[in-house]
Amino acid sequence: MSFIPNTGAERAEMLKAIGVSSVEELFSDIPAHLRIKGLDLPEGISEIEALDAVDSLAERNVQTKKMDWFLGAGAYYGYIPAVVPALAGRGEFLTAYTPYQPEVSQGTLQAIFEYQSMAAKLLGMSVVNASHYDGATALAEAVLMAWKARDNRPRILLPADLHPEYKQVIETYCTSFGIEFVQYEGAPEAASFDEKTAAIVIAYPGFSGEVYPIRKAADRAHEAGALCIVQADPVMCALMKSPGEQGADIVSAEGQSLGNPLNFGGPYLGIMGTTEALVRRMPGRIVGETKDKNGKRGFVLTLSTREQHIRREKAVSNICSNQGLSMLQTCIYLATLGKQGLKEVARQSYDKAHYAAELIDRIEGYRVRNSQFFREFLVETPKPASQIVKTLSRMGIMPGLALSRYYPERTNELLVCVTEMNTRAQIERLAAALKEASK
Questions:
Q1: pTM
Q2: Structural domains in the chain?
């Protein structure tokens, strides 16, 4: 029996009700070249072949263990204590979904509450939500949040030194809004503010690894009636001043480096925090602590700005998942390491990165471009960086990201990342290999 969800007449009536003449007009906002015209799917394969195909893909995840790994650029190879996947993989967590009936989801709500409490302290914010798909979507949501909070002032200041993929996500998110993006170079306090500026975005650190100060730019933004948004490295916040301490109004971050594996690109964790003044404009969920009628500790879904929970016209966002499992892994990771443990991870990353930069900067033909950095730094190379990456990859070393991947004109720039996972021997092998590759 054929499944016919609605008739042609019913479809025509619905289209008329929303004010369009055809299905094609309904989807006119989607560029023609992005619309799917039939699915080009391969022929079916056997279970054995499917398992082989999945295994071959999964095998690409373990390259970090087969090579000396110095690639970062937004996704970082870090140590994950065994307790993190062991607890997160328990059935009661692994099978849990969105708490549609929060009063009977006390375990899930407590995990969210503990995560939000630790993440808020790390970022220096009053409150953190749970949560977003990844750091890029969290930042895009932060931009929309600031734009709406400032009476739709049209202008958002974006740093030139922002991850190019984050820029693409922001532009995609904001396609249907009247937002003007103005790019600024260098230190954020030098950006130009006026009465049309809704917010400034500060990358902390920038895509190049450069760490820019926040306080002066935040003060200038507030004087102009604008907000300060910071896209932060959460591990760096354990060692350096948090964005909240420096005057940020909204902070977004990628939580992958807090207990989530690289996983061939996902799922990751978008973190967002804000001040009490803006809490009701923040998308996502906020869990609060309370007591039941017997005086026992309990948890409630204090705020949820999704249209399923409040009147549709008041909905702030339609985030369809709270990324619960990734959030849980970060919660367990932060609780396991504690304040001193996370600070030690950050300190090791900082010290090892600066040792690597010192060795590389001594090599003839190479020059480190950063004045201040945390665990990533930009290196000017004597040959095309993509060529160096290929050469060293064959030697079992992934030296970093060739910036020509995103900027074709920047052929001789290599972004190197060092984390707590890199040993002194690996760093010295990298320096020796770079020296050999320059000949």
A1: 0.89
A2: 64-79+338-437 (3.90.1150.10), 83-334 (3.40.640.10)
